[in-house]
Design brief:
CATH topology of the largest domain: Immunoglobulin-like
Oligomer: single chain
CATH superfamily of the largest domain: Immunoglobulins
Largest sheet: 6 strands, mixed
CATH architecture of the largest domain: Sandwich
Number of helices: 0
Structural class: mainly beta
Number of domains: 3
Strand content: over 45%
Amino acid sequence: MPQRETMFCFQLFGHQILAGLIGSLLLVGGCGETPSKPSASSGTSLADDSSKAPASSTTGSLPTNPGAGQAPLEVVPRVVQFGVVDPGTTLETVVTLTNQSDSPLRILQAQPSCTCTTLDLDNKVIPARGSIEVPIEMETNRAVGIKKAIVQLRIQGYGKFTTIDLRAETAWAVRTQPLYLGVRERAGQPERRRGTVNLQSLDQRPFKVLSTQGSAPEFVGFDPASDAPRSQYTIKYDLSMYGCDDLPPYYIIRTDHPKAELFDMRVRHDPCTRITPKINMEDFRSSLGVVQPGEQVTVSLVFKKPRADILSATSTNSLVDTRIVERVRDGKNIKVQVMTTISPTAPDGLFQVPILFTDGTRTVEHLFYGWVER
């Protein structure tokens, strides 16, 4: 039975020029709602003029009394800009930490600002006037938007953190304009249930729009029966047939672009599609992509500061069977891996199945969607 895995994590690996260093870090994108195989991409830096404290004593001993100053530790680059990348992309770069003092510096703790795996930087020593190289590997999740993370390094003898900033924007190879459908973003505003969306391939590759929300797309100024595929389109959308109870929170688009086969646009309506979860998650929908009947897909989800363990994942439709196969605690967060099996009798086309996760007391809904194709 075929099996795939869609994961998002952020790993920080380091090796010291003079001493070994290993660690890992998980990036989450824009905590809460931010909103193909991973490919590698390299990060670039932004100029940084962060201040540096005067060099410590030249005796070669480690400072022991914490002060209010910044450690004399240079980070190059301090801000890593990965730019625009595909969701589910593996990114790689290297950060260099240089001790600008005449005394060794000990890293007491490396604290990330987001969900992460174990960091093995604690108690690592950077020799006087020495450097360590920290290769960074980041796997973004499958949600689009701006992703930020900060690693705070606590240095023995210094009260201020030394930071490493990591930034990326995830976007499918086909970009939508607007980025989401603002039906009504604030209560009391007039609704906009009809409109147009522009689709454009970032690589200028011609592609076909196969479906919008499970139906044939309605184009503006294009006839798919007679016109050749293009790199950009204008399509119409119409959400006027939905009531508040069934207004879809996501507008799902299917194309034949290999890096944007199935993706969504957030439908924002206050209050109809507003998300107020009892258990907070990194995101509230997952694209399983184009799948075959009987296929298995492993999906990793991050629950943010849950009060208790996540006990089960229950599918609300027999088209999809779900079960939790692994739980990994990471500080106050929990990463859960869900084995998802597509029914062998699933019909071709779009499916959307809410999955219910519970801790025994509270329940949160997460949408799994995909496209069955034989």
